[in-house]
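Thread: Newbie trying to understand structure tokens

Hi all, I'm a second-year student working on a class project, and my supervisor (Dr. K.) asked me to get a predicted structure for one chain before our next meeting. I've only ever worked with sequences, so writing a 3D structure as a token string is new to me. If someone could post the tokens and maybe explain what I'm looking at, I'd be very grateful. Here's the chain:
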Amino acid sequence: MQEKPYFCPNCRSNRVKFSMISSFSQSFLKDAISGTVQEVTEPQRIDETEPTIQCMVCSFTGNEMRFVKQAEREPRAGTPINPTYY
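---
Reply by user tm_fold:
Sure, no problem. This is what the structure looks like when written as tokens:
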């Protein structure tokens, strides 16, 4: 996961709440007649080249670069760290 800002390209309001979705594979054998599970292997994580990100506001799901590129296209205006009042 990149250390860059995200911005949801769908709802265009969320810059903070996201979840990362990962995939697992688990093999199993079933009895052909009864349907009972006879053997189960340990789950194995499926390595992905790019993480899948989900917006927690609108539930839009896409690859990480969509969220990063949207944030680059519409950067958030920075606020001064030490504002001076007169």
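A couple of things are worth pointing out once you decode it. Helices lie at 64-73. The first strand starts at residue 18 and ends at 21. Feel free to ask follow-ups in this thread.
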